Amino acid sequence: MQLVSLEEELQNNSYPGRGIIIGRTPDGLNAVTAYFIMGRSENSRNRVFVENEFEGIRTEAFDPSKLEDPSLIIYSPVKVLGNDTIVTNGDQTDTIYEGFSQGKCFGKALSSREFEPDGPNYTPRISGVLHIENGEYSYKLSILKSDNGDPTCCIRNIFSYDNPLNGKGRFIHTYVGDGNPLPSFEGEPKLVEIPNDIEEFTKMIWGSLDLDNKISLFVRYINIESGKYETKIINKYR
Predict the structure, then answer these.
(1) Which of 13, 46, 63, 85 is least enclosed, having the fewest CB within 10 Å?
(2) pLDDT tens digit string along 122-160?
(3) Long-range CB contacts (within 8 A, 24+) of 229-236
(4) What is the DSSP code string of 1-37?
């Protein structure tokens, strides 16, 4: 697969929607994940990331008085359960968390879910999980999407990465670009570079997202040996 510039991918797409990046630092020491949200409507833009009780984050209305329909915009994108860090673009975070608690695998946990019920967009549900145990690291990504906009068929793709390569990561997002309806992401998660420095990575992602549409960004570096992590959160409206 061809390596692409994450910076250019973001700069050249005014509306990738919501995005997940997972990978490993060049020195091999840290597992990395990032999650960003964007919005076009006032309701979607009225959000911030705040820490939750599961060592992760939840979305929250910046101005509660302006909150309209919370069903697809208020959720916990990140939760930690034992050795697993779950990152998703919707309330399927809870589905995966509960599935893992019951001993289900990633795919089985997601088997009850499909794309979002927001026709005609039918926004894909994108999900990831980082597994770190005994100094070993692997991750998975998933996308649940309609069949070219037809909601009668749900396409389910899972991508697994065992012993991820140093300095490399994968990037998956909800939309190819802006449009009406919004066109769903296509193909395999994109191969991108991951830097050693969390500050550098955070600034690059935030600075590359469209100024009008970007809302919030979460970045976490997890030490593969110790499990200790560092987190950066940026909110446009706080």
Answers:
(1) 63
(2) 999 999 999 999 999 999 999 999 999 999 999 999 999
(3) 230/198, 232/198, 232/199, 232/202, 233/49, 233/51, 233/57, 234/202, 234/206, 235/48, 235/49, 235/62
(4) --B--HHHHHHT-S---SEEEEEE-TTS-EEEEEEEE
Strand order in the sheet with 78-81: 47-51, 57-61, 78-81, 84-88, 125-133, 136-147, 150-162
**162-175 b/e with 16+ CB inside 10 Å = b?**
eebeebbbbbbbbb
pTM score above 0.85: yes
Domains of the chain and CATH, by start: 6-235 (3.60.20.20)
Both structure tokens of 150: 């037809």
- For 172-225, what is each residue's pLDDT tens digit? 999 999 999 999 999 999 999 999 999 999 999 999 999 999 999 999 999 999
Residue 164, SS3? coil
State yes or no: cis peptide before 120, omega within 30 of 0: yes
Q: What span, in angstroms and rounded, lies between the C-alpha atoms of 34 and 170?
A: 10
Percentage of the chain lying above the pLDDT 70 cut: 100
